[in-house]
Each structure stands twice: as C-alpha cells, then as structure tokens.
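Handout for the seminar on molecular recognition.
Each group receives one record of this type.
Step one: identify the two inputs.
Step two: read the structure output and locate the region that could contact pyridoxal-5'-phosphate.
Step three: write two sentences on what you found, then compare them with the reference statements printed after the record.
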Amino acid sequence: MDNEKQLRFRTRAIHVGNAADQQTGAVVQPLHVASTFVQKVPGEWGPYDYTRSGNPTRDATETTLASLEGGSGALAFATGMAATHSVTMLLNAGDHVVAGTDIYGGTYRLLHKICNRAGIEVSLADSSTTEALSAAIRPETKLIWIESPGNPLMSITDIAACAEVASQHGVLLGVDNTFATPVLTQPLSLGADIVMHSATKYLGGHSDANGGMLVVNSDELYDKLYFIHNSVGNCMSAWDSFLVTRGIKTLELRVREQCRTAMLVAEHLQQHPKVKRVLYPGLPTHTGHDIAKRQMQGGFGAMLSVEIDADFESTKNVVASTQLFQLAVSLGAVESLISQPASMSHASYDREDRLANGIHDGLIRLSIGLEHVDDLVGDLDQALSNL
Ligand SMILES: Cc1ncc(COP(=O)(O)O)c(C=O)c1O
C-alpha cells in the first residue's frame, strides 16, 4: 500500500495486509489451508513453496502487525510462548538473560526450567528501576526481557530508559507488549529491538485463537528469527492467522473501550472497604503512573489487580464466586476474566520467588472485557461480599 505510513492506526488495522482478493474480488482474504504449493520446475521457487516456510494467510497477519508496531517485519508463531522461546534460541550456552521480576509465569518457567538446560543463565531484576536492571547486567548478558504493564502487578517499566541501558551494553531488548498492545505502546519506536505478543490475547480478542508474534525493525534480526521459525516449525496455523487478522481489525476500538471500563472499575475498587490496594497504572496513586502517562497513548490498559486481606483459600473462594467474570487464565478478550495469580498464571513460580516478587496469595487479577461497567462492578461487589 503506497500511502500506508500516512494512514491512521485503525485504518491500517483494516487495510494493510488485507487487499481484496485479486482472483475473486472478495473483500476478505481467503483462508489458505494448503500445506504445499506447486513449483513450475524443480528447484525454482515461487512466492510460496511449503506452509511452514510461508503461507499467504499467515503473511497477511504478519504484514498487518508489522505496520501497527512500526516494524519492518513480523513473524507469527503457534503461541506466545513459541514466539518467546524463539527469541531465546538466538542465544548460546553461556549467555545470560536479565528479565523483569513482573513477568508472565510461563516466561519465568521457560527461562528457569527450559533455557537453563541449554546453558543459558537468567537473573530477575526489577525493571521499573534502571539501576536494578543495569546492576544485573554481566559481560555475558545478551538479552533483556521486560513487560509493561507487568504481569500480574501492573508495574510500569520505562521502555526508552531500558533501551538506553541495553544499547550501552550492546544487549538486545525484548518487550512483551501483550498487555499494552500497539494501540497504547509501540516499543520499537522507544528503542526496543524485539516486540513480542501473545496473539491469543488482545490481537485475537475473542478467546478463540492461539498465537504469538514477534516484530522487529532490523532485517538482520528478522532473518535470524525467520531461520529459527522455519527450522523449528513453530508457526501459526492458517486458521489461527485468519482469526487473528480478523481480531486485529477491531483492536483499537476494543482496547480503547476496555481501557475506559478498566479505569472505572479501578476507581470503584479503590473505594471498596474489602480491597487493600488496587494496582492499575491509570490511578494517580500507582508508582508508575507518570511514566505510563508518557508511554501509553490514550489509555492505561484493561488489566488490573487488587489485593484483598485474605489467605490463599478465602481468595480462591472470592474468585470462584463471580458470575460475569469467568474464572479462567488468559486475558484480553471481549469477556471479562478473573484469576488468582498464585494458583493460576503464576503457579509455576517457586513459592519464595513468587512471594519475594509481591505475588501474594490475596492477589486477584482482572481482565476487563466489553460488558457494561455497572454489571461488572455489581458482580465484583457481590463476590467480595462473601469475604
Ligand atoms: C503477558 C503474556 N505473555 C505471554 C503469554 C504466553 O502466551 P501464549 O499463552 O499464547 O503462549 C501470556 C499468556 O498468558 C501472557 O499473559
């Protein structure tokens, strides 16, 4: 598309990578399920030869997201974890990773229980202070991995400041942008090298697709990651690509509305007598609020956590007693979800690491969907009344 760069975000979400089908004129790209593609003569490759190496439906998803993240290229993976794992495959035995303390439990597990077997060492550091991050860097450090807002404490990391630390040390900076989405934050423009998404979340947006994405702004890095993608074969299926592309078309509208509702829910819970603390970057009381105001464009995300004065079992009872908020892992879709990180998304943490990093038994995480705010607030009030 010639004038792509001048188009607004939501226009690009609909049109970039989504030209009408040339053969039929269909306004929606066909779903290409073929695993292999005919060659004219042996050894002469067309644009596609085998779906693991490239697929038109998957290409469309990659083209759209690269545009939305301001990258030069993107790759679509089977899951978010497959995407993150592929980044760690850029490393060699003896290399070291510094990861934020407030990260998805599955990423913690990957780094500590899979990458360590390949001889990669990991340190956790509070990425919301560049001092802690810098102090954790060693001569062997090759990658810094952060999330902002963090999961599940919603800590805010100054991505531009981390990018400066990374470049001073010649280290790659990877940002899991699943919570913020490119609607609110575009880490490549802040100096990150790699952006990762669990496309299972906001990009798909309807709890019916699994996927992961990597976006980069360097041809060299793209080529290295493409080599891993094609060699390992952890790519997104055509069906999931189709669903993620469809989800991305309404991404901005969904995220903006979900942010508005999340702010209202956070303000309500802040006044609630049973709630000790609300962790939401949109609240002026949040320690990362000023950075979030600068870094996140027009909203603070639709994820929030609350701490209640309850032990492991009583907290379990609260999260099991909502009626609209569904008790489930995952996030970012049209339906609101509730979870207890200690027993769900962060159960793979060693208990001491979990508590040391502030993920207490009484922590509840909410993913705000598209229901009416009054219904959501009413549901939370009735669940908290059981305490
Ligand atoms: C922030 C974040 N990153 C990565 C992942 C992993 O993504 P997937 O479940 O698609 O592998 C998740 C999953 O919950 C997540 O919440």
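Reference statements: Residues 254 and 370 are 7 Å apart (CA to CA). The pocket of pyridoxal-5'-phosphate is lined by residues 79-81, 104, 106, 147, 151, 176, 178-179, 198, 200, 210, 212, 330 (CB under 6 Å).
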